[in-house]
Amino acid sequence: MINIYEDINKLQVTFRKTAEFETLKEAVEAVRADEEAKTLFTNFRDIQLKLQQKQVAGEELQEDELVYVQKAAQLAQQNVKILAMLEAEMALSNVIEEVNRILAQPIQSLYEGL
């Protein structure tokens, strides 16, 4: 019997060894070690999460909230360490998207010709 979870766990181990994961790990550690960068990023992430929760709850976002989150994002992205971390996260996201695309191929092939 096939146990897909064993294979997924093996993939997770391999995933942690990729250059993209290592780059993100180092970038996160650099932000964590820099108190200013850590504070800027934490503030931005907290604001972003609060606004996402409002959206999920169906609440309308106010103009001042959108301006505030944009300013927080600009401040965060002006920090070299945070910018490097975000770029590393994007590179890793590309790997994840490619894996998802490959995993979805068998499903897509089922629908070919319909």
Tell me the Rg in angstroms. 19 Å
SSE-based structural type: mainly alpha
Q: Give the ordered list of helices and strands.
A: HHHHH
Helix content: over 70%
**Main β sheet profile:** none
Mean pLDDT: 93
Low-confidence stretches are none
* Beta strands, count: 0
Measure the end-to-end span. Answer: 31 Å
Gist?
86% of the residues lie in helices and 0% in strands.
Topology:
Elements: H1 4-16, H2 19-33, H3 35-56, H4 63-78, H5 80-111
Helix pairs in contact: 2-5, 3-4
What does this structure look like?
With 114 residues, this protein is mainly α. The protein is 86% helix and 0% strand. The protein has helices at residues 4-16, 19-33, 35-56, 63-78, 80-111. It starts with a helix and ends with a helix. The model has no long low-confidence stretch (mean pLDDT 93).
List keywords for this structure.
mainly alpha; extended
